[in-house]
Amino acid sequence: MRLYSLSVLYKGDPKVHLLKAAYDVSTFNFFQRSSVQEFMTFTSQLITERSSLGSRASVKEQEYLCHVYVRNDGLSGVVIADNEYPQRVCFTLLDKVLDEFSRQVSKMDWLSGSPVTISYAALDGYLSKYQVQTPR
Fold this sequence. Notes:
By secondary structure, this protein is of the alpha+beta class. The chain has one domain: Beta-Lactamase. The protein is built from four helices and five strands; from the N terminus they run ββαβββααα. It has a five-stranded antiparallel sheet with strand order 2-1-5-4-3, with helices on both faces. β3 and β4 (64-70) form a beta hairpin. It starts with a strand and ends in a 7-residue tail after the last helix. 32% of the residues are buried. It is found in: Endomembrane system. InterPro entries: Longin-like_dom_sf, Longin_dom.
């Protein structure tokens, strides 16, 4: 069971902005990592764009399950995991991340922010904390 991506986005009008993201692409071939990360960013934006405000959904994309939560205020989170990762845990993680993000980052920054300009460092920690280590 693995988590590959954890993203915070803003579903604005007319488009979706990626605010911050963390990725774990260590299980992929070195030469595939950037394209896999690009795919995950694109998929997160697309799923958020197609989801309505106040909704939660899980979407299968290739061999991944993408869990999206779009709050009524437009703040959105996406977790990309493998098929075995528990859905309930993903949505608990998204609730926690979005609540904390909205307390630490001003709503004014959601409209024009980007991963470079937003200072919120907790995503990498959450991604590794919620990573399920499988016995070898």
